[in-house]
Amino acid sequence: MESMDDLRVTECTRCPALVDSRSRIVNGTGPEDADVLFVGEGPGANEDEQGEPFVGRSGSVLDDQLRIVGLERANVRITNCVRCRPPENRDPTTDELENCRGYLECEIDRLDPDVIVTLGKVPSEHLLGRSVAVTKEAGTLEDVRIEGTPRRVLICVHPAATLYDRSQEETFAAAIERAAELADVDGSESGQSRLDGF
Ligand code: URA
């Protein structure tokens, strides 16, 4: 595999269609010892332009919900199944997912997060290795071996789903709340809030 210093892929030409469609490789963002790792599908137009995952409308939905549950974007890690924008925002192909898998596994291994939150169908199916009815299964925690190590994966709907279908807002909110609980974060009882009383 191409080298991945600091979890950044700086050069990769494995997926010809993605090499053509991308402006840049979009690496994960956030601390390398974060307790929570969010995994999306792949960069969209905004991410491709800015070089960071979830910076468009989906990113705003995610950021707002993180804040509500006491998780700040700056304290979590956010990455994608594929690091290059697919043309016309199509889903990544099986080959593309496979080509990028090693980078994701390396990131998971280095981070060793308490929980991995899969945002949408593509990352859920990619990491769980089965078909997932994401709306029905959102909020479900599943143990899965990734590169031989047991990992906790929390299924979540993609934040964009809440933009198309308002009824998904609650499902999304509940799953993010669960992620915060699993990472042992409680907005109302965080260290800062407790200290406020003194
Ligand atoms: N959707 C994703 O799945 N990932 C991003 O980075 C942005 C939107």
UniProtKB/TrEMBL annotation:
The keyword Lipoprotein appears for this protein: no
GO biological process: DNA repair
Enzyme class: hydrolase
A molecular-function term among this protein's GO annotations: 4 iron, 4 sulfur cluster binding
Record keyword DNA repair present: yes
UniProt-listed Pfam families: UDG
Sequence ranges assigned to domain Uracil-DNA glycosylase-like in this UniProt record: 27-177
Keywords per UniProt: 4Fe-4S, DNA damage, DNA repair, Hydrolase, Iron, Iron-sulfur, Metal-binding
EC number of the protein: 3.2.2.27
Catalytic activity: Hydrolyzes single-stranded DNA or mismatched double-stranded DNA and polynucleotides, releasing free uracil
Assigned protein family: Belongs to the uracil-DNA glycosylase (UDG) superfamily. Type 4 (UDGa) family.
Matching PANTHER family: TYPE-4 URACIL-DNA GLYCOSYLASE, TYPE-5 URACIL-DNA GLYCOSYLASE
Record-given protein name: Type-4 uracil-DNA glycosylase
Organism for this UniProt entry: Natrarchaeobius chitinivorans
